[in-house]
Specification:
The complex is a heterodimer of chains A (about 425) and B (about 425). With about 425 residues, chain A is an alpha+beta fold. Chain A folds into two domains: about 10-230, Metalloenzyme, LuxS/M16 peptidase-like (Cytochrome Bc1 Complex, Chain A, domain 1, 2-Layer Sandwich), CATH 3.30.830; about 250-425, Metalloenzyme, LuxS/M16 peptidase-like (Cytochrome Bc1 Complex, Chain A, domain 1), CATH 3.30.830.10. Chain A is built from 15 helices and eleven strands. In chain A, the strands form two sheets. In chain A, strands 1-2-6-3-5-4 form a six-stranded mixed β-sheet, sandwiched between helices. Chain B is about 40% helix and about 20% strand. Chain B is globular and about 60 Å long. Chain B starts with 5 loop residues before the first strand and ends with a strand. Classes of the chains: A alpha+beta (about 425), B alpha+beta (about 425). The interface between A and B is large, with 67 and 73 residues.
């Protein structure tokens, strides 16, 4: 239905077990190459893995000095080499990506893509190591300090902090409750030996996915990846636990120096992407419930009752959980909680109009159709499906959304069971 | 007989893109930037009216008027509500994702969507031209915005910015919170809102920018139907004289943060500052990007971290400043190092290689931004209100010389025109 000028999508598993996906699309003036390394999240290893994307992207053997590498990236028209850590269910995702202008904009005819690809691969596979085969002390201490500061500054963002606390309460001992960089204590006690062995493990055993996007040269990247990464890779299993709600609702209230309280309700749906045929209805339910400015929570709890400044729901397909986050005045915390649960009850009772459902569908389809207009959107769309039993395009997903019925939404609401309530209050 | 719109095609010298610049008979300036092959369209309808516009003079009145702080932002919230229905409810029928924001010097209403682009555009043009304010709806909004103000009071990055702005500016309203205070918004009446609306929402004071999956003719068809010709009234910003000196050079506040954060501002001549955006961006890249010796020195000394350190050229009518921000255990040492490095460059001159690298980097990032319809439309609107044009701005970056940047450095980043604002953790 859309004009797709010369867009080429390809997906394959390379000889060395690396999953290789390219979306070559000359609509873009930029290109992006990402290497995602995935391993099970675990308390013992999260800190060591979590530091690697940053440690590896700061230097490599061709540019062993941080500033020299930075200058090279500036010369390549402000290209960047970035480390990132994220989570997909109970899996830790370690990403290093290179992005920059398309080759056609290079004023002196230089090949930005070739340079970015080799810089990226050599950063991961060929880092600077000292005479003992360890990451140099100086860079290691720098990254340790920066990770600790990152963890400390998390407290400065109350919304984010509250979300982490709520997830911990909801998930308990499940790996997804572990912070993506590991705990403060584990980062503090990290040694260079641990980090170097984590790196070696990643090269041979992480689930490895390479994405090449935009106005790029996939063939060249593919050749370089084959050349750099080990030939006999043996990727680890990366399972994710999906649990039903517990018998009793877990509750936690914290006091902090804040003007506005945070209230987060954590639900279990028991349905994850492993049962992919059931997820469209839950996504739709979450949208009707609190996914848009015309959702139940926005129109009723925020607008009509003026109980919250924000109040929204979000479904995590990997874990099968649904969070409702809100910012409320202290005296309204209980009222807001009741009002949120009341709205869910309404949906369970089938009190939803055809119009509400249509609006939710329009909004979801709109979002899905926009995905491919952004390199990062396209990348995270496919990355998020790495461990799903099947891979679909945004358009296929849009089609599934259009098919969801009211009865399915009602059933989805019935499957949402409250499992945890987190409250952040002000101090008297 | 309907007057015809006057259309000029603007073409980029350095990119293959083009857009139509339209002088619409209603008095509105319209820009349509098509991006072939893209699925979504992004539209922004903005007025040159922001939080700093609390004192103004209309061309048909002799005296300047004063209105309460936060009124532009309040008006933005209220415009979403027309007499019969709310704008979000109307957008629900098109699937568009809509929003609005108020900054220091503009208010913008926007949407992005993939289908029903012109229906959404119709909604946008209609609701922004249909104010409806009553005592009752204002009272309700005072509650909602009061919540928003409280949320910002808890946000240390917001506090640290305003403590810096209050240190830089004696009288200029840029020092006031965009949303105002609970007390100032309590004074707002329907009459005041109508008066501000009728003054600043004159189409001659506004711009419409649409980018992505759009066609000029169809945009004009909607514009011709919906836009009502505006009176030939203009408005002048009537600021009280602002001294060159700063109010204070240091301010510290304790908040619920776990790691200290800072903003370091350098006050500039507002007229000069406005003229040299491109020079300043390149200067800042040379001085403090991650490829600079200063950045390396600060990083090695453990004084900054990559995740939080940043800088911005902050300019608008009657104000101009360079702002550095980040987290640091010793913000005073960071400030000292920045001042010393600026002085060293002033004395010794800028290295031509560092200059050419920085110019390439700034240029490349600006070209990259053209991948996003959202960045394009917002940039076109922002530049228009400052009397600039997108492609000329890109050319300007490519043409800036080392001498321009050296000249710029002579009267900016001066220690005696600086304010350091620091947020420290509370002792408990």
């Amino acid at each position: 239905m859309f004009l797709q000028t010369n867009r080429e999508v390809s997906e394959c598993v390379l000889e060395n077990g690396v999953r290789f996906r390219s979306v070559r699309d000359p609509r873009f003036k930029t290109q992006k190459i990402s290497v995602h390394m995935m391993v099970p999240l675990a308390k013992e290893t999260a800190a060591a893995y979590g530091m690697l994307p940053f440690l590896l992207s700061r230097t490599n053997r061709s540019y062993p000095d941080y500033t020299l590498l930075g200058q090279r990236m500036a010369e390549l028209y402000g290209a960047s080499l970035n480390g990132e850590v994220s989570k997909l269910g109970d899996v830790q995702v370690l990403t290093i990506s290179a992005s920059g202008l398309a080759d056609r904009y290079a004023l002196e005819g230089e090949s930005i893509s070739a340079e970015l690809t080799s810089l990226l691969c050599s950063s991961i596979v060929d880092p600077v190591l000292d005479e003992n085969g360890l990451f140099p002390e100086e860079g290691f201490q720098q990254e340790k300090r920066q990770t600790l500061e990152l963890l400390d500054s998390e407290l400065n963002d109350k919304r984010l902090y509250a979300r982490h606390q709520a997830l911990e309460l909801l998930l308990g001992e499940e790996p997804a409750a572990i912070g993506r960089y590991g705990s403060r204590e584990s980062v503090e006690s990290l040694t260079r030996e641990e980090v170097v062995s984590a790196w070696k493990y990643l090269l041979n055993h992480a689930v490895l996915e390479v994405d090449v996007l935009g106005d790029c040269t996939p063939e060249q990247v593919r050749t370089t990846v084959l050349q750099y990464f080990p030939a006999n890779r043996d990727p680890v299993e990366c399972p994710t636990i999906v649990r039903p709600a517990g018998v009793a609702v877990k509750e936690k209230t914290e006091s902090m120096e804040v003007q506005q309280c945070k209230l987060i309700l954590g639900f279990r749906t028991g349905v994850s992407a492993m049962e992919w045929e059931k997820t469209p209805a839950i996504k739709m339910m979450s949208t009707v419930f609190g996914g848009t400015p015309h959702s139940r929570l926005f129109l009723n709890v925020r607008e009509k009752m003026s109980l919250c400044y924000y109040c929204a729901s979000r479904y995590d397909t990997n874990k099968g959980i649904l969070l409702v986050e809100s910012g409320v005045e202290e005296e309204n915390v209980e009222k807001a909680r009741e009002a949120i649960l009341q709205q869910l009850e309404e949906i369970r009772q089938g009190n939803i109009t055809e119009e509400e459902l249509t609006f939710a569908k329009l909004s979801m389809v709109n979002g899905l159709h926009s995905v491919e207009d952004y390199l990062s959107g396209t990348e995270s769309w496919y990355l998020s499906q790495t461990f799903h039993p099947r891979t679909i395009t945004p358009e296929q997903s849009a089609e599934e959304m259009r098919q969801v019925t009211k009865e399915q939404v009602v059933a989805a609401a019935k499957s949402c069971i409250l499992d945890a309530v987190y409250i952040m209050k002000g101090r008297d | 007989m309907i007057a015809m719109a006057n259309i000029t095609q603007m073409t980029g010298k350095r990119v293959e893109d083009h857009y139509d610049l339209i002088e619409h008979p209603s008095g509105l300036r319209i820009m349509v930037y098509p991006k072939p092959g893209f699925h979504s369209a992004y539209a922004v309808f903005g007025t040159r009216y922001g939080s700093i516009d609390t004192r103004f003079r209309r061309s048909d009145e002799a005296e300047a008027s004063q209105v309460p702080e936060g009124i532009a932002h309040f008006l933005e919230h209220k415009l979403f509500e027309n007499e019969d229905c709310d704008a979000f409810a109307r957008y629900a029928r098109t699937g568009a994702s809509a929003n609005a924001y108020t900054s220091f010097d503009m208010t913008c209403y926007l949407f992005s969507c993939t289908e029903n682009v012109y229906e959404s555009l119709e909604i946008l043009l209609d609701f922004v031209q249909s104010p409806y304010f009553t005592k009752e709806t204002i009272q309700k909004e005072q509650g909602i915005i009061g919540q928003e103000i409280k949320m910002y009071e808890d946000d240390p990055s917001w506090r640290v910015l305003f403590n810096a702005l209050c240190g830089l500016y004696h009288v200029h309203p840029v020092k006031n919170d965009i949303a105002g205070t609970v007390e100032s918004i309590a004074q707002i009446t329907p009459e005041m809102l109508y008066r501000c609306y009728n003054t600043f929402y004159n189409l001659r004071n506004m711009v419409l920018c649409v980018a992505g999956n759009v066609e000029t003719e169809k945009v004009l068809e909607v514009a011709d139907r919906l836009l009502r010709k505006s009176e030939e009234v203009s408005v002048e910003r009537a600021f009280l004289p602002e001294p060159e000196e700063v109010v204070y050079s240091y301010k510290e506040e304790a908040l619920a943060v776990s790691f200290p954060m800072f903003q370091l501002g350098f006050k500039e001549d507002p007229e000069k500052g406005k003229q040299r955006d491109a020079e300043t961006d390149i200067l800042l890249e040379i001085l403090a990007s991650d490829a600079s010796p200063l950045f390396r020195k600060l990083l090695d000394a453990g004084l900054i971290n990559e995740a939080s350190f940043g800088y911005d050229h902050f300019t608008g009518t009657g104000y101009s400043a360079i702002l550095f921000s980040g987290e640091s255990r010793d913000a005073k040492a960071v400030a000292k190092a920045i001042c010393e490095e600026a002085e060293r460059l002033r004395q010794q001159g800028i290295d031509p290689e560092a200059f050419s690298r920085a110019r390439k980097a700034v240029y490349g990032r600006n070209i990259s931004a053209l991948d996003s319809s959202e960045s394009i439309a917002n940039a076109m609107a922002g530049l228009y209100f400052r009397g600039q044009e997108l492609f000329q701005y890109l050319d300007r970056i490519a043409e800036v010389t080392l001498e321009d940047v050296q000249a710029c450095l002579q009267d900016t980043l001066l220690p005696h025109r600086s304010t350091l604002s620091v947020i420290v953790p509370q002792q408990s």
